[in-house]
Write a structure and sequence with these properties.
Blueprint: H1 2-24, H2 28-38, H3 40-61, E1 66-75, E2 81-83, E3 92-94, E4 100-113, H4 117-183, H5 189-223, H6 250-260, H7 262-282, E5 288-298, E6 307-316, H8 324-390, H9 396-430
Length: 434
């Protein structure tokens, strides 16, 4: 039993270590969540949504009664009085008791008809809230794409370092073989020198690959708002996109994009909000009807009573304002037309973006297929050339060239794979489903 434990303990420990590292690895979904939680752009869009929502509540509040209250005291240096001397009566009666006047007033006003000003104001605020919500969604998708790109760049740099390590190990083994063959007199010293130079060059490329990985880690940390030197351990599994998308049909993808892109919805809502604002501005020239009720208290002992209740209906009509309301409404309509024109231009740009992403995805998938076959051929070519060289049938140059082809084919395949993964997210972003 103890022998079995000792035999399998190293494998069990290695498996536990690998599972622990996997558990500690960060996946792309978690990266998106962290980036969105701390990104200043997202916080700004959320603040704009909150502001638009407050504007909407304010617009709705214009339908409610307006209650006001006031109170005051006025001190006179010489209080006014009734003078009856002009009527032939030599008498002067004070208007107030003393040299001051105290007055309190409370009123409630309820708008009955505003010519559509309040209603259109509410419609405009609702449309602007929709525009800000759409814009928030667009910012979220753009940040997710940026984080996905940095995430994939880290995986790409890590893969490039692995290829460089493999190249160094392979050339190191070849240098040892050439050195043994040189010492036995089977090959010339030139073979050893050429192999040693190739090894030094591969070690230099490994240093560069390690530096690129460090830079990729720093860029990824910056995208998530972290300290640039924070250790990075990423899960190589990448989540798929919306299963409802059909990457094989460009027309279907374009149709989804034109229905789903938040930027288009934002411009549509913004144009609609401006039109409603124009309607609200024109309504200022129409008659406005309101009912008013109130209470007034006036401290004066000479009046028969000092408290008054009142109710009334009032009409206000700004018959002529020099054309201000009409011209301001026209300005808002021009702005709405401009937004609509921007929307039409964006529609064409989105169609181009979807086409570019779709072509890029097809290209990278084809590259993956071709480079996968090339990797197999390069591995087999290196094995054959090495055997021929050891048997004295090939040259050292052939071995070095074969090793270079093997590293190149692996790099090409890895890059094609990562390009395909990124192209998939770019396509999802292009159709508004990331």
């Amino acid at each position: 039993m103890n022998q079995i434990v000792r035999k399998y303990l190293p494998a069990m420990a290695l498996g536990l270590l690998m599972s622990t590292q996997t558990a500690l690895s960060e996946d792309l979904v978690a990266a998106w969540r962290e980036a969105l939680a701390g990104d200043q752009t997202i916080q700004a869009t959320q603040s704009r949504v909150a502001s638009a929502n407050a504007d909407l509540e304010a617009a709705k509040a214009a339908r409610l009664p307006n209650i006001s209250a006031s109170a005051g005291i006025t001190q006179f240096d010489d209080a006014p009085a009734f003078d009856f001397s002009g009527a032939g009566v030599p008498a002067i009666l004070p208007l107030f008791d003393g040299e001051s006047m105290q007055m309190a007033d409370a009123r409630i006003t309820l708008p009955l008809y505003t010519g559509g000003r309040v209603m259109h104001g509410i419609d405009a605020a609702e449309a602007m809230l929709e525009a800000q919500q759409f814009q928030s969604g667009a910012s979220t998708q753009q940040i997710k794409l940026a984080v996905a790109e940095q995430y994939i760049n880290v995986l790409r740099a890590k893969s490039a370092l692995a290829v460089a390590d493999s190249n160094v190990k392979s050339l190191s083994a070849h240098v040892r073989d050439v050195d043994d063959m040189f010492k036995s007199g089977a090959v010339a010293r030139n073979d050893y020198l050429a192999a040693a130079v190739s090894l030094a060059d591969s070690e230099q490329r490994r240093l560069q690959a390690r530096n690129r990985l460090d830079l990729a880690n720093a860029a990824y940390n910056r995208a998530l708002g972290r300290n640039l030197g924070t250790p990075v351990s990423l899960d190589e599994y990448l989540p798929g996109i919306d299963p409802g998308l059909d990457p094989s049909s460009l027309d279907a993808l374009t149709d989804v994009a034109l229905r789903s892109r938040a930027e288009l919805g934002s411009l549509d809502s913004a144009a609609k909000a401006l039109r409603y604002q124009a309607d609200s501005k024109r309504a200022e020239t129409r008659p406005h009807l309101a009912v008013t009720g109130g209470y007034m208290a006036l401290q004066n002992e000479f009046l028969n009573r000092d408290e008054f209740w009142m109710v009334g209906v009032g009409v206000q009509w700004n018959v002529f304002d020099g054309g201000q309301a009409r011209k301001k409404a026209s300005a808002l309509l021009f702005k709405s037309n401009a937004v609509r024109q921007e929307r039409n231009n964006l529609r064409s740009l989105i169609e181009l973006q979807v086409r570019q992403s779709w072509l890029r995805l097809n290209e990278t998938n084809e590259r993956k297929r071709l480079t996968a076959r090339a990797v197999e051929q390069a591995e087999e070519n290196l094995r054959v050339v090495r055997d021929r060289y050891r048997n004295g049938e090939g040259t050292n140059t052939e071995v070095l060239d074969a090793e270079m082809l093997r590293s190149l084919s692996r790099s090409n395949h890895d890059n094609a794979d990562f390009d395909a993964k990124l192209a998939l997210y770019e396509l999802a972003r292009g159709v508004g489903r990331l």
